[in-house]
Amino acid sequence: MFENLNYLQLQHYWWIIISLLGGLFAFMMFVQGGQMILGKISKNDEVLKTMLINSLGRKWELGFTTLVLFGGALFAAFPLFYSTSFGGAYWVWMSILFCFIIQAVSYEYRKKPNNFLGQKVYEIFLYINGSLGVFLLGVAIATFFSGSQFYINEHNFTTWENSLRGLESLGDPFNVLLGISLVFLVRILGAMYFINNIDNEIIRQRSISSIKIDMIIFLVFFLNFLYFLFTKSGFSYNENGYVSLEKYKYINNFLQMPVVGIIFLLGIVLVIFSVFNTIERKKTSCIKIAGIGTVLTVMALFINVGFNNTSYYPSLTHLQSSLTIQNSSGSQYTLTVMSYVSLLVPFVLAYITYAWYQMDKVKITEEEITAEDAHNY
């Protein structure tokens, strides 16, 4: 089956898989969003806080599974991106990894008896993971559009031409706009998840109040990000792999790939529609539609930056070092073998869906959390 595909088709296939996994991971970061608003919603009420943390604690491992799938697929299918980004911009990537490591530690040890750091410290770790981790991830993804400072020689050896090793991306307002947009998007998703997963009127009302504010901030930053994205020059390459700047490249990609553009607009509409239903119609299950909208939006953005002869990781200092899905992928044999392995992805997604359903069959209540035999995070 996959051996009948040519090299370019395999490269496109794998970029679609990565785009889908990236969208799924963006949705699963509602856990990080929920961690950011723990104090805002609980207002230091220990029972409410325990309910909120237990709601998230039952899902963070599913998000970690999606992260591993996304990162593993991206680095395996496009190894030159792995060696360039991790080998060059390692300070920003190591910071992101650190933020996710302390999340796992926090859920494991927050309620352990006699933990020497104390419960409050682990809650601070959760906030750092939710805020700084998500922000840095958004900034790193934004460099797919804005570019980085590196040079790749004929032996594929990368020279990073900035001593900040990736942290220099924080100085670009375009990158910061996407980072902040992602932070407030996952805050909205986290609040929606609390409404759907916890049977408590106080939490529901405070979550709705949080969404009202966060949605305004999200739209301000996201619309500004889109304005800069659609008016900036992009990085295009021809049939010979020669990279050059093209005006309005990213809006042109949506226009020249109308299906991708429609998916992008549909995703945004679904998120806005879900927020409206949550606030005005008091719906409690809008996290599902908002999740689909998030997946579609992020997936379309990834396809936009990878397809239509677009460099998905451009070099600002040496244009011809820019990475494309054609010059940075594994061999045809590697991609073919991996494509058969990718057939397992639906089973992983089915496991996530089943586990989600089993954990959410009954909403979390105060009685459950305060029971003597309760297992709390």
Question: What is the 3D form?
Answer: globular
Give me the number of helical elements: 16
Strand proportion: under 5%
Report the sheet with the most strands, covering strand number, pairing sense and barrel closure.
2 strands, antiparallel
Helix proportion = 55-70%
**Which regions have little confidence, pLDDT < 50, spanning 5+ residues?**
none
Q: Which value, in Å, is the CA radius of gyration?
A: 21 Å
> What's the end-to-end separation, in Å?
46 Å
How many β-strand runs? 4
Which structural class do you get from the secondary structure elements? mainly alpha
Strand order of the largest sheet: 1-2
The helix-strand sequence is: HHHHHHHHEEHHEEHHHHHH
Number of domains: 1
The overall pLDDT, averaged over residues, is: 93
Description:
The chain is mainly alpha-helical. It has one domain (2-231, 329-370). The protein is built from 16 helices and 4 strands. Strands 1-2 form a two-stranded antiparallel sheet. Strands 3-4 form a two-stranded antiparallel sheet. Helix 6 crosses helix 7 (90-109) and helix 12 (258-279) packs antiparallel against helix 13. The longest helix has 31 residues, at 201-231. The N and C termini lie far apart (46 Å).
